[in-house]
Design a protein that fits this description.
Elements (H helix, E strand, L loop, with lengths): L6 E2 L1 H8 L8 H5 L2 E2 H9 L3 H9 L4 H8 L3 H6 L8 H10 L2 H24 L7
Antiparallel strand pairs: 1-2
Length: 127
């Protein structure tokens, strides 16, 4: 007897694809995908997915990563809405004080995490 493939809800699929769900096409927002469907989208992304990944709007984790800050840093900086790639580039070019500060804080946190990992597992250079 064949197993029924496990299905994931659209928010889960969007998160795994790294896209902002409300910006996806209605058929994606209404469909439940299997792992095979998700793999197919990853391997051979349709134009809408490539465009969303390239231009946005992007979900908070992607915005934070592209800015080099934490998601909490986004909130502290007053960024509560998804941003496009163009808006992210503009913020990086402007380099407001809050962004410079949050980038510094985030870099310090990452350095401390790496130091603790090295202390716990000497010789392990995973990032």
């Amino acid at each position: 007897m064949a197993k029924t493939p496990q299905r994931m809800k659209p928010p889960t699929a969007a998160k795994k694809l790294g896209v902002y769900l409300p910006a996806t096409p209605p058929e994606f927002q209404e469909a439940e995908l299997t792992r095979d469907d998700l793999d197919a989208l990853q391997t051979n992304p349709p134009e809408w997915l490539s465009l969303l990944r390239r231009e946005g709007p992007h979900p908070r984790p992607t915005v934070a990563a592209r800015l080099g800050i934490s998601i909490s840093g986004l909130a502290r900086g007053g960024i509560t809405e998804p941003l496009t790639s163009q808006q992210i580039r503009a913020l990086l070019d402007e380099a407001p004080d809050w962004l410079t500060h949050e980038r510094s804080v985030h870099a310090s946190v990452l350095a401390e995490e790496a130091r603790l990992r090295e202390r716990k597992n000497p010789g392990d250079r995973r990032g």
